[in-house]
Amino acid sequence: MRRFATGVAIVTTSLDGRIHGFTVNAFASVSAAPPTVLICVNRIATAHPDRVAALAGFHAGGLVTDDEDSPHRSASELTAEVYLGHADNDPSMTPENIAALEHALDEADVTYSSEVYEGAAHGYTMADTSMYDEAAAERHFDALFALLDRTI
Length: 152
What we know:
Elements: E1 9-15, E2 18-24, E3 26-32, E4 35-40, H1 44-47, E5 54-58, E6 81-89, H2 95-107, E7 112-121, H3 134-151
Parallel strand pairs: 5-6, 6-7
Antiparallel strand pairs: 1-2, 3-4
């Protein structure tokens, strides 16, 4: 999966008079006031923990692997509050994977919430797919906005 070709956008911001930028493989506008966007990044929360206050994952697969660089192995580098909304029917994030991820987050003393969306398939937020689940998608927005309200 890590070598799957995807579109890329460049996101920039100014902090302390310096311009910072990074690439993202997904970008969506959430609100104009206050300006809020959703982005999908690769390990930005652990690479720049001083700049990321919130991290959310919805039907995110592949967070626990046997690889040396598996994302769950970097939990100790997180400072952001984390919310995870797992799909119930997701072969890329099994109950065993979820338990291993939660264990890593607990061991790292990360503030997080991890929930399984019963009956939801991987892709439940994507309205243009057959996996779309309106109730799960609405639930994910509620969880996301609550996380953002607490952290930004």
